[in-house]
Amino acid sequence: MTHIPTDTPVLVTGASGYVAGWLVKELLEAGVTVHAAVRNPDDTEKLEHLTTLAAGTPGQIRFFGADLLSEGSYQQAMEGCSVVFHTASPFTVSVRNPQKELIDPAVKGTQNVLRTANETQSVSRVVVTSSCAAIYTDAIDCEKAPGGVLTEAIWNTTASLSHQPYSYSKTLAEKEAWKLAQSQDRYKLVTVNPSLVIGPSLARKPTSESFNIVRQMGDGTMKPGAPKLGIGVVDVRDLAKAHVAAAFLPDAEGRHIISGHNTNILELGKALIPKYGDSYPVPRNSLPKWMVWLLGPLINDISRKFIANNVNVKWRADNSKSKSALGVTYRPLRTSMEEMFQQMIDADAFRK
């Protein structure tokens, strides 16, 4: 159990997000005062799950308005904070203008937050939510990694503005974070690099990309089959605990792959069969690669390059540093998928 000091506040950027919600819960339950930086602190409906959480815990929450692209907007929220958790960054794969929608908010937002940290005397640790996407672009990149396995020593070199711009945004943003951290010697930067995040959300209307994937497992889209698209996944609650450890363990340093399972999209669907197979059209079979190749660009606007590099390609990453250095334990894949799926059933998310 990580000891969490409660004598100073901590800042969480993007506090209304999927991952941030569970992190805020951990902090509030420990009795911490959380400075929650959000785009609109007056949006009571969007922040309702956080205010409800705070009401039932020994911690306190204070909301601050801040914008990734507005320089200096995190200054007030960061004042007096000992730890900064920078979780805010757009995660979407359907974009019209990747520079404007992904690269700018990720990179300029990181610059904005870390420049403010560089000027805020109270800050002693910054934890940046990076991604395994800053390590690889496509599952095929695993084959080129030493021993066929991704590690923290590897940086993504294959993403670009035109191919997997989300991965490109995470790579550029994390590199910028390390550059800015190295220009000072007061605080320590630690990064967590999660794979695809799954599990239930604390917000009533979750917006993470992973919910879009799971929705297709319940609404019939994947009834004919699911692609064996190689990915890693991690439960959102395990990831929140990893953030806490990265912030408060004195020896935590560097990058950490936070990923519970080397898997693929079909295996996620099959994890739902024992509990939901009789009542929902969850995928049971593999969709042949040639069919994904044929239909992907037409149905889901997925490029053929992406299909070639990820479908029927195994994804492998080494999560041993997260276990040894941060003490992370990973819950079973089936537990995460069932609890996420049940939440979507309760929210009537599968009605087309």
Descriptive notes:
With 352 residues, this protein is α/β, with parallel strands linked by helices. It has one domain: Rossmann fold. 41% of the residues lie in helices and 14% in strands. It has 14 helices and ten strands. The strands form two sheets. Strands 3-2-1-4-5-6-9 form a seven-stranded parallel β-sheet, sandwiched between helices. The protein has a three-stranded mixed β-sheet with strand order 7-8-10. Strand 4 (83-86), helix 4 and strand 5 (125-129) form a beta-alpha-beta unit. Helix 1 runs parallel beside helix 2, helix 1 (18-29) packs across helix 8 (236-248) and helix 4 (98-119) runs parallel beside helix 6.
Q: Which key terms come to mind for this protein?
A:
single chain, 352 residues, alpha/beta, Rossmann fold, 14 helices
Give a brief outline of the structure.
The protein is built from 14 helices and 10 strands. 41% of the residues lie in helices and 14% in strands.
Helical amount: 40-55%
Spatial order of the strands forming the largest sheet: 3-2-1-4-5-6-9
Q: Average the pLDDT over all residues and give the rounded result.
A: 94
Taken together, the total number of domains comes to 1
**Fraction in beta strands:** 5-15%
Low-confidence stretches: none
SS class:
alpha/beta
CATH superfamily: NAD(P)-binding Rossmann-like Domain
CATH architecture descriptor text: 3-Layer(aba) Sandwich
What Rg is obtained from the alpha carbons, in whole angstroms? Answer: 20 Å
Terminal-residue CA separation: 43 Å
Main sheet, how many strands, which sense, barrel? 7 strands, parallel
